[in-house]
Amino acid sequence: MVRSLWTAATGMLAQQTSLDNIANNLANVNTTGYKTQEIEFKNLLYQEFQTKTTSANGETKPSSAQVGLGTRVSSINTNFRQGSFFANDNPTSFAIGGSGFFAVRGENGNAYYTRNGNFKFTLAANGGNMLADTDGHPVLDVKGEPIILDAKYMPDKVTVTKDGDICYPDEKNNPQPIGVRIGIWQFNNPNGMYREGDTLFSTTAASGPAINEYNNNNIIKSTINQGYLEGSNVNVADEMVNMITTQRAYELNSRAITTSDTMLEQANNLRR
After folding, report:
1. At what angle do helices 2-27 and 236-269 cross, to 10 degrees?
2. Domain extents in the chain
3. Which of 50, 89, 114, 159 is a good FRET partner for 264, with 20 to 30 A between their CA atoms?
4. How far apart are alpha carbons 65 and 260 in whole angstroms?
5. Considering just the CA atoms, what is the radius of gyration of the chain in Å?
6. What mean pLDDT is predicted for residues 176-197?
7. Residue 117 has pLDDT above 80, yes or no
8. Distance between CA 47 and CA 58 in Å, rounded?
9. CA–CA distance, 117 with 94 (Å, rounded to integer)
10. The predicted structure's pLDDT at residue 56
11. Which residues lie below 8 Å from residue 63, measured CB to CB, with a gap of 6+?
């Protein structure tokens, strides 16, 4: 009965973590570029309840007698399913079609990767216009360098092709590439990336190094859609169903603790 108390307690802790994860998904249902997280459980070690044989002659039993010791969270995986595209009037709003990621440079000089293409032009140190995210991190080009346009280019006239080439109208008002392309990167195992927050991810040994789409022809290239933003891929209906399931599982584990407590109380009363 003491074992059942601890086993049910592990179930309650695991379901509480599951509810925390569901709440986080629902809280980010309107976050641009957010990717939903899915929780997975695994059972704990098993304890041998009986020996291999229960007869005097030592015959081997056809099946073992083991009792489980509960559950725990084994992983919280990120679902990188593409979200819906929403039109945006900002000319520096971009949505990626495919498996790619934008890259931005953090304050520590490291590159971080995101699906959130809500960018703005900001004033650069040399007086030009630098493409940056809403936190001021510079967006990187295919060479891994910040995208800084000369001051002669007016930001509201800049257009971007599906390949990420930045264009500016010529004398005849026809967009022409200016020799700068927005960088797009992919990963062999995006689930292995480390979530930094603010829809930013960093590379790890599990994710592998970032693969530059520009100079790699062995991958399916992504496309950049100007004037659109990728919405969150959270499915509210699924999350609500998961919430109900989690609540019921939590109640069952709490009922197991209550039942174990009642049985212990009855066992103690036998001494009276």
Report:
1. 160
2. 2-42+73-80+235-269, 85-230
3. 50
4. 21
5. 27
6. 93
7. yes
8. 21
9. 5
10. 63
11. none
* 41 C-beta neighbours (distance < 10 Å), count: 16
Tell me the pTM.
0.84
Bridge partners of 255, per DSSP, are none
Judged against a pLDDT cut of 90, whether residue 263 lies above it is answered with no
Whose CA is closest to 126, among 99, 148, 98?
148
Q: What is the pLDDT of residue 62?
A: 67
How sure is the predictor about 160, in pLDDT bands with cuts at 50, 70 and 90?
Answer: very high
Total count of residues recorded for the chain: 272
Q: How confident is the model at residue 1, as a pLDDT?
A: 58
Structure tokens at 146: 């910040």
**C-beta neighbour count of 253 within 10 angstroms:** 22
Answer whether 1's CB lies under 8 Å from 264's CB.
yes
